[in-house]
Specification:
Layout lengths: L36 E8 L4 H4 L4 E6 L12 H4 L5 E2 L2 H13 L5 E4 L5 H13 L6 E5 L5 H6 L6 E5 L5 H8 L4 H16 L3 E5 L2 E13 L5 H15 L4 E5 L5 H7 L3 H9 L9 H14 L5 E2 L19
Parallel strand pairs: 2-4, 4-5, 5-6, 6-8, 8-9, 9-10
Antiparallel strand pairs: 1-2, 1-3, 7-8
């Protein structure tokens, strides 16, 4: 049996290009070291309808994250506080198990820093009969080289486009280069995956290939959200599916109230993160998209932020 591929000895898998010798166990800017770490592998019902359908998306949540946004809803796994070390072989078995449970797809959630292992696991699973689409679920903070490296592996990109403004990207994600980097990466994703292609499962459309671009509305950031919508629409039109999200939850405020010192520091620096997105601002964003002529985009009903889109990271399916 062949050994698992080693992580990079000078890591440049994400745009931070921190150069960590992860093969020797050094941890990168994302927090990941040598071990492939997964926190959950289970059916997930909170993606866009053509990705979740009635069966659910086969979501595999990886630990650690290159971006580490201040308001992250999955902060527990982004910080590497949940998860177990697994082999590439075990990861490929998770994919097959999820497909066996009826998953519409295999959904790799924040896999960028484990791209080498993830690609190997997909290849192994496909050699054993995996026949559902593979979704790369990403913050959008990707290098063009990494996207090109996914050719033949990834069918669908489910990518964020978080900010059009560099200052906002610096404030919340310590990544002032995010708008430019994410745009170049999105160009590559669209070139690789092509325009949306649907098939049918259980009488419902399933996204088989293509790109979904998510944008999460943030408190007090309506003008930046408008800039994102205009940029994506004017550049890509119907070549991508746009998803405008209203599920921002002030988890940082809850963490600070529970005594988390890091969250308290974040809240002191960014007090606006303690609030929710005003319903009228979200409606204005949808009206703006309509006015631009954006068609068939995904949107969320009022009160989405009250729902739980975050599953327990309790090693289910790992």
């Amino acid at each position: 049996m062949s050994a698992d591929p080693a992580p990079p000895s000078r890591c440049d898998l994400c745009p931070r290009a921190c150069g960590a010798n992860r093969a020797a166990g050094e941890r990168g800017a994302c927090g990941a070291g040598r071990a492939l770490t997964v926190a959950r592998a289970a059916l997930h019902f909170w993606e866009e309808p053509p990705l979740s359908g009635s069966r659910g998306s086969g979501a595999v949540f990886f630990a650690h994250c290159p971006l580490r946004c201040s308001y992250c809803q999955n902060a527990v796994i982004a910080a590497g506080e949940a998860g177990a070390e697994v082999s590439v072989g075990r990861l490929s078995e998770m994919f097959l198990e999820l497909a066996g449970q009826g998953a519409l797809n295999v959904n790799l959630v924040t896999p960028t820093h484990y791209a080498i292992e993830a690609r190997a696991a997909v290849a192994a699973a496909r050699s054993r009969g995996l026949d559902v689409p593979v979704v790369w679920n990403t913050s959008g903070y990707e290098t063009v080289a990494a996207v090109r490296g996914n050719a033949g592996v990834v069918d669908v990109y489910l990518t964020d486009f978080k900010y059009a403004d560099a200052a906002l990207a610096a404030r919340y994600s310590q990544a002032p280069d995010y708008p430019e980097v994410a745009l170049f990466a999105l160009d590559a994703m669209v070139e690789e995956a092509g325009p949306p292609v649907f098939d049918e499962v259980d009488g419902m459309p399933r996204l088989a290939r293509g790109v979904v671009v998510r944008h999460l509305a943030l408190p007090g950031a309506l003008e930046d959200s408008k800039r994102v919508v205009r940029l994506v629409h004017e550049r890509f039109g119907s070549d991508v599916l746009l998803s405008l999200m209203n599920q921002y939850t002030p988890v940082v405020a809850a963490a600070a109230a529970a005594g988390d010192a890091r969250a308290a520091r974040t809240l002191a620096r960014c007090p606006e993160l303690a609030g929710r997105v005003a319903e009228e601002d979200y409606e204005r964003l949808l009206d703006y998209a309509d006015g631009l002529g954006v068609e068939d985009y995904f949107w969320q009903e009022g009160g989405a932020a009250e729902e739980s889109f975050v599953p327990p990271f309790d090693l289910t399916g790992v």
